[in-house]
Amino acid sequence: MLWFRRMRSLQKFVAVHASVFNHFNAERSHYSRDSFKLKRAAALAEWRGLCMA
Fold first, then answer.
1. pTM of the model
2. Which residues contact 24 (CB under 8 A, 6 or more apart)?
Protein backbone atom coordinates (compact mmCIF):
# COMPACT_ATOMS: atom_id res chain seq x y z
CA MET A 1 0.00 0.00 0.00
CA LEU A 2 3.01 2.26 -0.32
CA TRP A 3 1.78 3.77 -3.59
CA PHE A 4 -0.98 5.70 -1.79
CA ARG A 5 0.25 9.17 -0.90
CA ARG A 6 -2.65 10.04 1.38
CA MET A 7 -4.43 7.98 3.98
CA ARG A 8 -7.77 9.20 2.60
CA SER A 9 -6.96 7.72 -0.84
CA LEU A 10 -6.15 4.41 0.77
CA GLN A 11 -9.38 4.48 2.76
CA LYS A 12 -11.44 5.18 -0.38
CA PHE A 13 -9.73 2.35 -2.25
CA VAL A 14 -10.24 -0.12 0.59
CA ALA A 15 -13.91 0.85 0.98
CA VAL A 16 -14.63 0.32 -2.71
CA HIS A 17 -12.55 -2.85 -2.91
CA ALA A 18 -14.29 -4.33 0.13
CA SER A 19 -17.76 -3.68 -1.24
CA VAL A 20 -16.88 -5.13 -4.65
CA PHE A 21 -15.14 -8.13 -3.13
CA ASN A 22 -18.09 -8.85 -0.83
CA HIS A 23 -20.48 -8.54 -3.76
CA PHE A 24 -18.67 -11.13 -5.85
CA ASN A 25 -17.17 -13.36 -3.19
CA ALA A 26 -19.23 -16.51 -3.04
CA GLU A 27 -18.15 -19.50 -1.03
CA ARG A 28 -17.60 -21.68 -4.10
CA SER A 29 -17.25 -24.88 -2.13
CA HIS A 30 -20.74 -24.49 -0.61
CA TYR A 31 -22.69 -24.46 -3.90
CA SER A 32 -23.19 -26.74 -6.84
CA ARG A 33 -21.78 -25.49 -10.13
CA ASP A 34 -25.20 -24.58 -11.52
CA SER A 35 -26.18 -22.70 -8.39
CA PHE A 36 -22.84 -20.91 -8.32
CA LYS A 37 -23.18 -19.82 -11.94
CA LEU A 38 -26.72 -18.52 -11.36
CA LYS A 39 -25.67 -16.52 -8.31
CA ARG A 40 -22.60 -15.20 -10.12
CA ALA A 41 -24.70 -14.10 -13.12
CA ALA A 42 -27.19 -12.37 -10.79
CA ALA A 43 -24.38 -10.55 -8.99
CA LEU A 44 -22.84 -9.43 -12.27
CA ALA A 45 -26.21 -8.19 -13.58
CA GLU A 46 -26.78 -6.23 -10.37
CA TRP A 47 -23.29 -4.75 -10.58
CA ARG A 48 -23.84 -3.67 -14.19
CA GLY A 49 -27.13 -2.07 -13.18
CA LEU A 50 -25.39 -0.13 -10.41
CA CYS A 51 -22.65 1.05 -12.74
CA MET A 52 -25.12 2.34 -15.30
CA ALA A 53 -27.06 4.40 -12.78
1. 0.45
2. 40, 43, 44, 47
